[in-house]
Amino acid sequence: MNIKRVMIVGTMIVAMSFGGTAWGRTAALALPVAKWSTSTPVADKDELLDALNQSSEEELYESLYEGKSLKDIAAENGGNIDSVINLQIAQLTEQLDLRLASGSITAEQYTAQKAELRELVTQSVATTFG
Question: Minimal CA–CA distance to 16: which of 34, 28, 32?
Fold first, then answer.
């Protein structure tokens, strides 16, 4: 299990559940199921683990399983929650860019969704899933 992908999917689910006007019904129906690409090489170090100051995916998984939010984990371990937020925004922006390029969303949907990313991700890092 790749914890980074779990976190991205979790963030996307939270983002969609908070749903502002830009994530409305019309846009949601037009969005295809996310597909993961393995064409991007995996970095030697895990940026999410570094930002949260976690030594392993297992340690992060256990903290999440205990019901802690990413914000809680970063605070307890001297991590940098702003780096976590920026990392998730960058990853979600990349996905939006790909969806715009493939034609699965319109330029208006892209602009509206991108404008809400920071707020949604900031809310999601404080959300617990336990």
Answer: 28
* pLDDT tens track for 68-109: 999 999 999 999 999 999 999 999 999 999 999 999 999 999
> What span, in angstroms and rounded, lies between the C-alpha atoms of 64 and 74?
12
| pTM to 2 decimal places | 0.66
Residue 49 and residue 68: Cα distance in Å, rounded? 15
Would you say the C-alpha torsion 97, 93, 8, 20 has a positive or negative sign?
Answer: negative
Structure-token pair, residue 126 = 């404080």
- The two counts, helices (H) then strands (E), for the chain are 7, 0
Q: Could you tell me if 57 and 3 are in contact, meaning their C-beta atoms sit under 8 angstroms apart?
A: yes
Question: What is the tens place of the pLDDT at every residue in 50-59?
Answer: 999 999 999 9
Q: Other CB atoms closer than 10 Å to residue 19's CB: what's the count?
A: 14
